Amino acid sequence: MTDGPYVLTLRQPWASAVFLARGGKNVENRTWKTNYRGRLYIHAAGREDIYAPHWVWDLVGGRGTLPLSAIIGYVTITACQYDSGVNNRWAHPNMWHWFFTSPALLTEAIPATGGRALWPLPGNINWKETS
């Protein structure tokens, strides 16, 4: 794995939950760990997670209102720990917890096809970042 930057695809509403102003999703649960640290772009998958709890949909504004098949922002991965024991509503037991900080939305969602695992940031995109 090179130094990045990388993209991670999440289904909605999880992708948008990362960027909530208060109480945003700052832990990603995975069955695998990553050694990557640094900026990680978040891609909203082309399909919604039909099993996501209603309370998450309520936090992000409801079904059918969120961007799909697009890179929507970025975070910084600061740590990755197995079943970290952190008291956090986003952290599930018996999973790898990827810790996110500094979420920032792009000023415009960038249409993109997703990928599996961490995938390289496309180099041919005109980025319009918020910061």
Question: What would you say this structure looks like, in words?
Answer:
- The longest helix has 7 residues, at 54-60.
- It is globular and about 35 Å long.
- It is mostly beta strands and 131 residues long.
- It has helices at residues 14-17, 54-60, and strands at 6-12, 27-30, 38-48, 70-82, 96-111, 118-120.
- It has one domain (6-113): Archaeosine Trna-guanine Transglycosylase, Chain: A, domain 4 (Roll).
Characteristic terms for this protein:
131 residues; mainly beta; Archaeosine Trna-guanine Transglycosylase, Chain: A, domain 4; six-stranded mixed beta sheet; 6 strands; 8% helix; 41% strand; globular
Number of alpha- plus pi-helical segments? 2
Instruction: Evaluate the radius of gyration.
Output: 14 Å
The major pleated sheet works out as:
6 strands, mixed
| Broad shape | globular
Extended strand count: 6
Strand order of the largest sheet: 2-5-4-3-1-6
Structural class: mainly beta
CATH topology: Archaeosine Trna-guanine Transglycosylase, Chain: A, domain 4
SSE order and pairing:
Elements: E1 6-12, H1 14-17, E2 27-30, E3 38-48, H2 54-60, E4 70-82, E5 96-111, E6 118-120
Parallel strand pairs: 1-3
Antiparallel strand pairs: 1-6, 2-5, 3-4, 4-5
Sum this structure up briefly.
The protein is mostly beta strands. It has helices at residues 14-17, 54-60; strands spanning 6-12, 27-30, 38-48, 70-82, 96-111, 118-120.
